[in-house]
Write a structure and sequence with these properties.
By secondary structure, this protein is α+β, with helices and mostly antiparallel strands. The chain contains six helices and five strands. It has a three-stranded antiparallel β-sheet, with no helix packed on it. The protein has a two-stranded antiparallel sheet with strand order 3-4. Strand 3 and strand 4 form a beta hairpin. It is flat and about 90 Å long. The C terminus is likely disordered.
Amino acid sequence: MDRITQEAYYRQRVLKYAEKHGVTKAAERYRMSRKTVHKWKRRYDGTVESLKNRSRAPLHSPLKQSDWEIQLVQRYAKKYPRDLLLGYEKAQKSGYVRSYGCFKRTASKLRPPEKKKRARQNKPYERAAYPGQKLQVDVKFVPSYCVANGQKYYQFTAKLLCDKAFWLKDGKLIQLRDMSEYTMPTTSIMRTVYCPPIRLSPSA
C-alpha cells in the first residue's frame, strides 16, 4: 500500500468518526480544522478513491513549450552537451525564443539517465593451505629518536600465514586452531637492519 492510499484510508476513518460523534469532535480528536473535515465530507462518495489527492496540474497552459521547441532543445543539447550556452545560441538562430533557463531545464529533463557503474567484486583471497606456503612481510621505519648513530633503520617483520594447519606431534596428526599454536622457531622473524637506498636494475 502506497502513501497516497494510506492517507485516503486515514481520511475515511476520520469521516466515519464524524458520522457518529460529529464534525467538531472528529476535528478535535484528529487535530485538524472543521473546514478540512467538511471538505473531505463533500468529496466523499463512499469509495476510498474519492479521498485521494487530486492532480494540481493546470487545465490550460498557454506558455507550455510546443513539440517543435522541445525537439529543438533536444537536438542542440545532444549536439553540445558540454556547452549548453552555445547550444542555446544555435537554437535561437533556428527560431527558439525561450530563455536560457528554460532551455537548460528542458535539456536536463530530456537527458537520458546515467548508467550505474557496476560494483567492483573482489576476487576471493586464496588462503594458505599449509604452513610456509605464504609469508606476510611488514616493513616499518624506525624513528630517528630511537637511533643513536644517526643512520636510517627499517624493521622487517615476517610471519607465516595459515588459518588451519596440521602438525605431526608424537606420531599423531593434530589440527592447530590458529598460528599462535604453531611452535616452530621460524614462525616469526623480527630484525632491525640498516637499509641504505638501493637502485634495482631490471632483470635480464
